[in-house]
Amino acid sequence: MAKILLVDDEPDIRFVTRRMLEKEGHQVIEAETGEVALGLLAELRPDLILLDVRMPGLNGWEVCRRIKADDRTRSIPVVMFTVRTSEEDMQKSTEYGAEAHINKPFDKKELLQLVEKMLKGEAAGD
Prior knowledge:
The chain is of the alpha/beta class. It is about 45% helix and about 20% strand. It has one domain: Rossmann fold, CATH 3.40.50.2300. The chain contains five helices and five strands. Strands 2-1-3-4-5 form a five-stranded parallel beta sheet, sandwiched between helices.
């Protein structure tokens, strides 16, 4: 069972995603803002972070940059989880240090496969 930090300002998205991941045996911790997520990281030490881009306050790219700049958290895989679907947006996710980018609305099977790959330490394109 993995510990996954789910960061999204939309309660419905968090609910659906949490239920789906919990059915797979994962423990899911929710954060509704980037600031809350950053505050939880030190104590939680999640195995994976699913991170929305468009949120009030700190956007997901800035949160990812801060995660990857911190020696204590840089090894945690980050999946950008967003409606931002352009090639430029995906490139920006990579530039800020995210290991993968998945578009919302997401395909359940695709998200679960990506989560498993990330937890096994495989690259998203493998």
